[in-house]
Amino acid sequence: MKWNSNLYDNKHSFVAEYGKSMINFVNVGKEQKILDLGCGTGVLTNELAKNGATVIGTDLSKNMIDKAKSNYPNLIFQVEDATSLPFKNEFDTVFSNAVFHWISNQEKLLHSVYTCLKDNGTLICEFGAQNNISQIQTAFEKVIEQKGYSYCSPFFFPSKEEYKLLLDQAGFEVKHIIEYDRPTPLADEEKGLRNWICQFFASDLLEFSDEQKEQILLETEKLCKNSIWKNNQWVADYRRIQIIAVKNKNNRTK
Ligand code: BEZ
């Protein structure tokens, strides 16, 4: 998907704001080396670097990396595929916020993360859990299918049991894993849901004309109104999975 980095920074800054609480789990001391995996426009990379840790931000999107470099010229950013990172036994921590659900090959992803970490290094991440955005996705799917098109969700939203198994199999020792509801108010009052859809479902909308797109947005808003329009704003039905897992080199079987 081609990411719109300006829309992301202007209207979806909440993604990074929520991610800041995850930084409390990270040892950000001077001697630490941290990878911010899927760093977007670099807001959290910058937070992670504030105490003097060495931090590298990577993202698959060149648009995002260009914006991150211009936002924070003193930090290191690289375009990289999370499933084939070019690092070996390098990082004390791999940190990632709101990224893993975009990646379909989770075995490859976890193998790549495992390889990047030093022995006893830590993966600290949060992303969409089972039933994340189910109201929005179900409404969008219904509208698209009523128009004779098919919708195939690109997302991976696991339960904590399912993900613990994947982490175990990849050789991690799971220290903390929880799932929780995190209702998320969207900026821009009545425009909030359409902004969100235009940003995050951009590739599903590519094949439609402007007129069809407007119709899809209106109909999706209508279907979502009862469930996620609350006190004059859209509140997205986010569910999160939060993980702290340690690389244990004796655990890996493959
Ligand atoms: C999320 O952060 O949960 C998310 C964002 C955009 C699309 C799907 C999920």
Automatic annotation (TrEMBL):
InterPro entries: Methyltransf_11, SAM-dependent_MTases_sf. Gene3D superfamilies: Vaccinia Virus protein VP39. One of its GO terms (biological process) is methylation. Its EC number is 2.1.1.197. Pfam families: Methyltransf_11 (PF08241). Keywords: Methyltransferase, Transferase. It is an enzyme of class 2 (transferase). Residues 35-125 form the Methyltransferase type domain. GO terms for molecular function: malonyl-CoA methyltransferase activity; S-adenosylmethionine-dependent methyltransferase activity. This is Malonyl-[acyl-carrier protein] O-methyltransferase. It comes from Clostridium coskatii. The gene is bioC.
